[in-house]
Amino acid sequence: MITILSYNVNGLRSAISKDFLKWLAQQAPPPDIVCLQEIKAQPKDLSLAEVEGLGYQCFWHSAEKPGYSGVATWSKCKPDRVIAGCGIEKYDREGRILRTDFGEWTLLNCYFPSGTMGDERQAFKMTFLEDFLHWIMHLRQERPNLLVAGDFNIAHTEQDIHDPNGNKKSSGFLPEERAWMSQWFNSGFTDAFRYRHPHRVEYSWWTFRANARAKNKGWRIDYFSVSNHLATRIVEVRHLNEVVHSDHCPVWMQIDLSC
After folding, report:
1. Is 32 designated active site?
2. Model confidence over 9-27: pLDDT tens digits?
3. Statement: the pTM of the whole predicted model exceeds 0.90
4. DSSP string over 138-190
5. CATH (domain of 237)
6. What is the pLDDT of residue 117?
7. Which residue of the set 19, 131, 151, 191 is catalytic?
8. Which one of 15, 118, 135, 192 has the minimum C-beta count within 10 Å?
9. What is the domain extent for residue 50?
10. Based on the structure, what is the number of domains in the chain?
């Protein structure tokens, strides 16, 4: 049995300044694996003796651009293999995907692009979605037992967003993005939270504007997806809404796997 935490920290240095590492150390026990997105840092920018003191090995895929994007996976389990990126340069420059293999299963820590900065980035996002799905289909032939964690930057259904009518034209809830999510979950992957909680309304991200978090006007855009045949091994998935180091909250999953 392992526990995995996925968390868009919106800047790891910022989250640490808000006592993220102290919070992590206080978890009883701390998760076996921590997947961080939007770290906005290089390994040289941080001193992580406290993290290593908790028994984690730290793996990174930082963006080339300073202070931008990037993912990190901290694991108490020793991976058999670590691969940064998907082999597509325009995505790998931005630090979008970090793969770790543990025995017969593979964890992908992913930070999908946002399209909120305009048409060019929205087009980039849609191309990423197409390329990512194609890449995953090939990877799954080699590694069929997949766990995909991270910030997908898409709310899938009206159940996953506080104001579906008002956001129909908003990036992150566009019809073509939601259609891609349906395609994703029809291609052999299970939404871990929905598997355990089909009707529960919970969110993982809130804008900093208009006191949205206090009013719980949020979006569920952070996910654990697992290969369909692993779904019955999902024990629990929770959104840790009370944890505030970012505009996102951590998503916690317990699953019956060994590493």
Report:
1. no
2. 999 999 999 999 999 999 9
3. yes
4. HHHHH--EEEEEEE-----SGGGBS-TTTTTTSTTS-HHHHHHHHHHHTTTEE
5. 3.60.10.10
6. 87
7. 151
8. 118
9. 2-255
10. 1
